[in-house]
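Hi, here's the filled form for the chain we discussed.

Project: internal
Contact: R.S.
Residues: 478
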Amino acid sequence: MLRKAVIVCFATLLLFTASALSFAQTAAERAVEEAKKYAGQTLSVTWEAGLQAQGIRAILPEWEEKTGVQINLVELSFWDLHDKVITEHLAGTGAYDALAISYAFMGDFVNAGVLEPIEKWVEQYMPPEDLEDIHPAFKEAFQYYGGKLYALAADGDVFILYYRKDLFEDETNKQEFYEKYGYELAPPKTWKEFYEIAKFFTDKYAPEIYGAVIQRGMQSYSWFTGQFIGNGGQFFDPETMKPLINSEIGVQTLKEMIQQNEVMPPGVIKWGFMEALAAWLDGKVAMIITWPPIGRWSEGYGVRTKQLAWVPPSKVVGKVGYAPMPNGRSTLAAGFSVGVASQSKKKELAYLFAQWLTSPETSLKLVMLPFTLVDPFRLSHYQSVIYRNAWDNAGEYLDTLYEAAKGGVLELNIPGAREYFAALEQAITSAFAGEDPKKALDLAAAKWEEITERFGREKQKEAYATYLNLQNAIWKLE
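And the returned structure, exactly as it came back:
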C-alpha cells in the first residue's frame, strides 16, 4: 500500500514538473519553439489592408527569422475581412490559415463554421496567466462566442474624447463659459454638455477653430452606438427582437448628432478619418472623439518615422487632454482578435502564430510602434513603464483608455451584424443629408426586421441575449 502511494506521488510530481517546465518559457518563446518543427512552411494570414498592416509587417521578420515559417500576409479591406473570408470558406478553398477578426464578425463566423475552437492549444501552450492579462472588457467579447474560445485578443480599440487643454484651461474662456451656461468648463460628461461646449468654442473662434469634429462620412454607426446606448437605448427588445433603433431614444440620438454637426467644420457630414485627423492636428478644433492612435500622434510620438509620413504635423503637442465619451459610454469600435480558420491544413501552426503575435512581449512591441493602428488591450500594456513614459502625459492617456474600456459599449456581434450596420449607416447618412430622422430610422428598423426574420427570430434572440450578457459583464467592471 505504501509502495503504491509512493508511486502515485512520484507520478504526480513528474506531471507537475512537466507542466511547470512547459510554462518555464514565455508564451512567445513557447510558440517559437513549437513552430520550429514547421520550418519551411508558409502561413496565409488575413489582416486589414493599408495603414492597419504597417505594424504587423514591421514585426513579421522576427517570427520568420526565429521559426523558419514564412507569412503570406493577405491584406483585405475591413469588410472583405468578413465577406471574402466567408465566401472562401463556403467555397471550401482553404485559402487562409490564421484570421484577423473584428469581434463584430464573431456571430457570422461561428454561424458559418469559419472558426476552429482553440481551447486545446491554449491549454497546451499558453501560460494560464496570459489570458488573465487581457483587459476584462476585451477578454470575453473578443475571444469567446457561445461559451467557446475561438480567438486571442489582439487590439483594444476604444473611442475616447481628446480635448484642447489650453482652450479649456484659459481663464477668459472659463469665465465666459460659466457666465453663459452656469457650470464649469471641463471635458463634457453628457452629450448636452458636449454640444454646449462645442457651440461655445465655435461661436467664439470659428472659422479659425470649431468646437468639435467627428468623422461623419463613414462608419458613423460606431459613434451612434456609443451615444445611443449611453442615452439609455438598446438595439432590440430582448423578448421579441423588435428593433428599437427607431425608438424615442434612437430618434433623440440621431437628432443630437445632426445638431452637433452644426458646430463642427463645414462639410463634416462627408468627412472620413483623414479629414477629421487633419483638422485636429492642425489645431482647428477643440475636441475630437476617435480611436487611440490619435492620442500618440497628437503628441508627435514617432512622427518622423517613414511610415507616418502621411500624418500631418501636430500643432497640439503638449496641449491635449483625454476623457471617455460623454455619459461614460465609449464605443469599443471594431477591435480585432486572431483566430484559426477551420479549413486550414496547418491549424496548430496557425494557432502558434496567433499566440506569438498576441503574447505580452510581442504585443507590447506592436502596440508601441508609433505607426501601428493596434492599441493596448493587455493589463501589462497599460502598466508598462516604458509606454507610460513615451511622452509627458502618456500615463494619463493609458489610464483613460483603460477606464473608457470599462464603460465600453459593444457593437453588435450577432449573426447578420454586417447587414444591420449597413442599414443603420444608410439611415444616419440620409438624416445628415436632410431626411427626417424618424423616417430614416423607421426604414432602417424595417430592414432590421427583414434581417432578423431571415436569420431566424429565435436564433437571433438567443444571440442577442449573449450579446447583452457580455455587455452587462463589462459594465460590472465600473
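Let me know if anything looks off before we file it.
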